[in-house]
Amino acid sequence: MKLIGNSNEIVTFRPKRKTFHNLCEDIVLVAEIEMKDQEKYELSYGNQLIPIATKLASQEQHKIVICTPPIYGNIDFQIILITMNYHISIGAFIQFYINQKTIYEEFRKFPKIGIDYFGDYSKFEMGGLEIVNQDCLNRFRTASEFIAFLDHDNLFIPKNGNILPVQFTEIYASYRFNTVGM
């Protein structure tokens, strides 16, 4: 197999089989190569060129990165907004993966978060959590001191737990909930 990059440099490699059985229709092949121009790659297989999507690792340093599961649209936004603001207030960077364009546009308004739009990817729900966790790990492992994989309603709590009541009061006061009688 050959990998062709932006500079038309061709790298030949031999993938190693990682699937240890013959029960599955698909198998996993793994190969490691040094990537020089990390923008666009195509895999040459026979007389076909298959584009390979690549993302650069983050260059911005973070103390804590929170990786979250994919958001498909059926979520409680109050929980996500409170969780997001709480993590930002303790200095964490939070990475979201969203497949609804309108939700993506709303999240773009928030500073200090990372968002990716994955659109209509039919196989995403089959392995969505594994895909986004691997993407988040690959993107931020060299640019952060600590990475946490949390659900949308989980909190990363620092050692000084006394700050939580104060932070929740501030976060609650910053929102106008549409609840009667509050």
UniProtKB/TrEMBL annotation:
| This protein's UniProt keywords | Glycosyltransferase, Membrane, Transferase, Transmembrane, Transmembrane helix
Q: Which InterPro entries match?
A: Glyco_transf_92, GTase_92
The record's subcellular location field reads: Membrane
Instruction: Spell out where the chain crosses the membrane.
Output: none
Q: What class of enzyme is it?
A: transferase
Enzyme Commission number(s) from the entry: 2.4.1.-
Q: Which domain of life is it from?
A: Eukaryota
Pfam families per record: Glyco_transf_92
**What's the protein's topology in the membrane?**
Single-pass membrane protein
GO terms under cellular component: membrane
- Output one GO MF annotation: glycosyltransferase activity
Query: Does the record carry Aminoacyl-tRNA synthetase as a key word?
Result: no
Write out the similarity annotation.
Answer: Belongs to the glycosyltransferase 92 family.
Q: In its UniProt entry, what is this protein called?
A: Glycosyltransferase family 92 protein
Species this chain originates from: Caenorhabditis angaria
